[in-house]
Amino acid sequence: xxxxxxxxxxxxxxxxxxxxxxxxxxxxxxxxxxxxxxxxxxxxxxxxxxxxxxxxxxxxxxxxxxxxxxxxxxxxxxxxxxxxxxxxxxxxxxxxxxxxxxxxxxxxxxxxxxxxxxxxxxxxxxxxxxxxxxxxxxxxxxxxxxxxxxxxxxxxxxxxxxxxxxxxxxxxxxxxxxxxxxxxxxxxxxxxxxxxxxxxxxxxxxxxxxxxxxxxxxxxxxxxxxxxxxxxxxxxxxxxxxxxxxxxxxxxxxxxxxxxxxxxxxxxxxxxxxxxxxxxxxxxxxxxxxxxxxx
Length: 295
Ligand code: ZN
Prior knowledge:
By secondary structure, this protein is an alpha/beta fold. It has one domain (7-292): 2-enoyl-CoA Hydratase, Chain A, domain 1, CATH 3.90.226.10. Helix content is 45%, strand content 13%. The chain contains eleven helices and nine strands. The protein has a six-stranded mixed β-sheet, with helices on both faces. Helix 2 links the parallel strand 2 (24-29) and strand 3 (61-66). The radius of gyration is 18 Å and the shape is globular. The protein binds zinc ion (ZN).
């Protein structure tokens, strides 16, 4: 806990890219070597990029994508650039997590960097579109779900295997809103991959594209939305988000976040590890094993 930097993370450059053109800002996660696993640095750089896009009056629509084979493998639980132990330049009124112990360490960190940040991004007053290819797993879901629209390639897949850690899903608990409650239970109970086609049927994905056409399709959709007036888009987005919150989305997430942290702390008490002994490698092995068990 005494380290203040992570040499491996420092060596990575441009882990979030930003480009704005034709009224569309494109924010790109750029850790393809690690399947865009989100470390703290990436999370805070994403936040900066969203702020930049919101502040630019020329930008009407924001696109979020991931460089490489996969959209995002989730939160960084095992790359050399993992930096959960480091302090960050915080965006909310939460205090620093890095020098805290027990349940406080992760609770404070996730309240700020996961639940807090995702809610900020979900509520940015400009339409957002996620362009998803390949894997969109756990923390990857959170990034896709905070966007207003999702376009996925036909080979994209979605999963939340966090229940395997004894934890009731990822921190941004939108599952019963993205899917109907019964399908959300199946999605979580099995940890199975949901195909883009099924996600489209469920209304979680707006449009299906291909690897070859994803960028063009998303750009076209973004430019079309960008022809609408800025305030009209902002108010429409607010209205729909507000209705979701009236339906309990925000309050439901508060409760799920508390249960999520009871599970982290229980894991810590039982095994000394808040993730129940799972790092990225073990999780991938277990996912593979489970994929072989036919339902
Ligand atoms: Zn967590």
